[in-house]
Write a structure and sequence with these properties.
Layout lengths: L20 H4 L6 H6 L1 E2 L7 E3 L2 E3 L1 E13 L3 E7 L4 E7 L15 H6 L6 H16 L6 E11 L2 E12 L5 H18 L17 H16 L3 E2 L1 H5 L23 H18 L3 E2 L9 E3 L4 H14 L10 E2 H11 L6 H13 L4 E2 L4 E3 L2
Parallel strand pairs: 6-8
Antiparallel strand pairs: 1-2, 2-3, 4-5, 4-7, 5-6, 7-8, 9-11, 10-11, 12-14, 13-14
Length: about 375
């Protein structure tokens, strides 16, 4: 492959990379995206996926070719989106050595009829050897750093092992988890804005959103009105200090700032699908999407009923069909983002199952 590099102007400053959780974690990216990531100009060996700095990855796939050398294995791993070379160094225990039993005769004789440390060590080595020797068609889990060698992207493994998955439980769990990581993290662009001191500033809006999300989680809120959460945001409003003989400066009052911040916060939460208004009226009532049991039941019933129809029997109901049905039968104000949170909640509870990225059916 031809290695690509980013424009330095488009890269976030390297001193801010550590603020992105992706940078410290083994990113579970598809092989296709690992191969297409652009390399940093500032620090070679660091790559960017959607502005997220990445240098460590976690891959699960099938071995499609292998080479063995004295010090390492080279496996070609296919996860369904592409194939990448994984360079897996041999542990000292895996290298050819003399049989430990040859030098442990006295210990073996002394341990007859009891615990034999030499025999147990030999068994341990054999098991480790079996987990690290893979054949074509077997499942490999590998973690390591991404490197570009001779214009070819590959993974230098720090940990690797064969995965025994006879009923494909590990692969199914992986296929369900990775798309969620993309939606929640990898596909959201990184936004780091340095201030004059070189640190990052977390806007009042971001703080307000997190405060209200925590409130929903701690109190298990299902419905609320704006004045129920307004006081939670009061500490985020900065009031200018004036002395007794100083006239207040004309401008936006603290009350107006609070109302504006609350409005923007509720708008953002609606855009993310976390809340919605079932009925738009003068009584401004918001429903918390994942806590709305009636909405959960309505979506589940729609999928159960429509999955019986011949049109949806094979693949299940498409998310756009479910959205249309929910708006007709339950509320016109349910957004796709809200529906996706409901589908995720139902799937986590094993009430429904996704047959593809956008189709759902019942068990």
């Amino acid at each position: 492959m031809q290695a690509t590099t980013t424009d330095p102007a488009e890269e976030p400053p390297s001193m801010l990379w550590g603020l992105d959780p992706t940078f410290s974690a083994f990113a579970r990216l598809y092989v296709r995206d690992i191969l297409q990531m652009t390399e940093s100009i500032q620090v070679p060996g660091i790559y960017f996926y959607n502005s997220h700095p990445v240098y460590k990855v976690d891959v699960l796939g099938t071995v499609v070719y292998k080479r063995e050398r004295e010090d390492f294995f080279c496996y070609g791993v296919d996860d369904g989106t592409g194939v990448i070379n994984c360079l897996c160094w041999k542990n000292d225990l895996l290298k050819e050595e003399d049989d430990p039993g040859k030098s442990g005769g006295k210990h073996s004789d002394a341990a007859k009829g009891g615990f034999n440390p030499v025999a147990e060590l030999k068994k341990l080595r054999e098991r480790q050897k079996n987990r690290c020797h893979l054949e074509i068609g077997e499942l490999l889990r590998v973690r390591g750093t991404v490197k570009t060698s001779r214009q070819q992207r590959e993974i230098m493994a720090s940990t690797y092992y064969k995965v025994n998955d006879p009923v494909m439980a590990v692969q199914i769990a992986w296929m369900m988890e990775v798309p969620q990581l993309y939606r929640r993290c990898y596909d959201k662009p990184l936004e780091l804005q340095p201030n004059a001191e070189g640190d990052t500033t977390i806007s009042s809006l971001s703080k307000a959103i997190n405060i209200i999300k925590d409130f929903f989680k701690q109190k298990s809120v299902s419905r609320f009105r704006p004045y129920d959460v307004q006081d939670l945001l009061q500490p985020l409003i900065c009031q200018p200090q004036t002395s007794a003989d100083q006239e207040p400066v004309a401008g936006v009052s603290g009350c107006q700032q609070l109302h504006q911040l609350l409005k923007e916060t509720l708008d953002m939460l609606q855009n993310e699908g976390i809340i919605y208004r079932k009925v738009k009226s003068q009584d401004e009532v918001y429903n918390v999407t994942t806590q709305d049991k009636d909405l959960l039941i309505a979506v589940k019933d729609i999928i159960r009923e429509d999955s019986k129809r011949e049109k949806y029997a094979e693949k299940g109901c498409h998310v756009l069909h479910i959205l249309s049905a929910v708006r007709q039968r339950y509320s016109l104000n349910v957004s796709r983002a809200a529906l996706e949170l409901v589908l995720k909640s139902l799937e986590c509870n094993s009430d429904i199952v996704s047959t593809s990225d956008n189709h759902y059916t019942v068990f």
